[in-house]
Automatic annotation (TrEMBL):
Name of this protein: Muconolactone isomerase domain-containing protein
Domain Muconolactone isomerase: 2-93
InterPro entries: Dimeric_a/b-barrel, MLI_dom
Annotated organism of origin: Saccharolobus solfataricus (strain ATCC 35092 / DSM 1617 / JCM 11322 / P2)
Origin organism lineage: Archaea, Thermoproteota, Thermoprotei, Sulfolobales, Sulfolobaceae
Superkingdom of the organism of origin: Archaea
Length: 104
């Protein structure tokens, strides 16, 4: 299990309308829902008041994550207007166990 925190920041291109942006975002949501139901996406949240989405995703490798990101509708359609911040994370319980081990 490799967990990553993904922070998607979307900037609306000047050459598309609000409706077109929402249509792209809808296609992205439709693509994401099966991954949420399958447990691949552990958490998926819209940031209130911003064009941002935060996800926690479980992958087997860095290469798998790259492959997933490149196939997302929002990346394909808004790639130049999208920033994705990727941060590796792990369960806090694992960190706690590590601290106990290091302090022995």
């Amino acid at each position: 299990m490799m967990l990553f925190l993904l922070w998607f920041k979307i900037k609306q291109p000047t050459n598309i309308t609000q409706k077109q942006l929402m249509e792209i975002w809808k296609r992205e949501a439709e693509a994401a829902m099966p991954a949420v139901k399958a447990g691949k996406i552990k958490g998926l949240y819209k940031v209130t008041g911003r064009r941002e989405v935060v996800a926690i995703i479980d992958v087997n490798s860095h290469e798998e994550l790259d492959g997933i990101l490149e196939t997302l509708p929002i990346v394909k359609e808004l790639g130049h207007s999208l920033t994705i911040e990727v941060t590796a994370i792990h369960p806090y319980e694992n960190f706690y166990e590590l601290m106990k081990k290091l302090l022995q």
